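As a warm-up, study this chain.
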Amino acid sequence: MIPIKTEEEVNKLRKCAKLLIKAFHAVESELAPDVVTRKLDEVAEEVIHSGGGKPAFKGYKGFPSSVCVSIEKEVVHGIPGSRRLREGELVSLDMGVKMDGFYTDAAKTYGIGEVTRDRIFLMNTTRTALHRGIRKCRQGNRLSDVSHAIQTCVESKKFSVVRALVGHGIGTSLHEEPQIPNFGPPHRGPKLVPGMVLAIEPMINMGTSEVRFLDDGWTVETSDGKPSAHFEHTILVTAGKPEILTIGIEKVI
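Now compare it with the structure written out below.
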């Protein structure tokens, strides 16, 4: 069953999303060549705690940090530490906040300094695919309409969709039903109804769609070593246009 949120619960999610947006803006202001990735985690945790929330990821199934910092070939779940950012790299930040018993989740990919045109194209395509999927989050559409919109956008630009990882419902748990693949045929799966809250998150590779899971138990990287990009929003299905609860993270691109 896909949980349906009440208006009171949605208001709590909106408040939670505002704090997550604030954390994103604080962390992205630190992004620059030679910055140690552990610093990004420290900034995120401080902002989240000071705003009355808790980092959703830290301690979740043993994850050691408040933010996932995934660089270049790392698709998701990169663990911040002593590594320094370098000019020309793509860096994906994935963060979540828990507040008043509710979770929000978002991700965004950045270029550090001057990046190559193909990396910029990969980032732009991934963000566009996310919004194509979000447009399908309307009452009466089916869940796979979201998946299909993302896949067709990505593959039309000759990039590949990661199939081993999916989006998800979100609310009183970080991961709720349903699972949301970023690929598949349209017009299948449950119908979308107002009150559903979904974390839509295309993970898109420059090369093969295949990935491998590293021995640290968390980091996922592309099998061919080519760059990957990741964008995610927490969205609310309404009777009309979907509400993007985390849209504020896009104010700085």
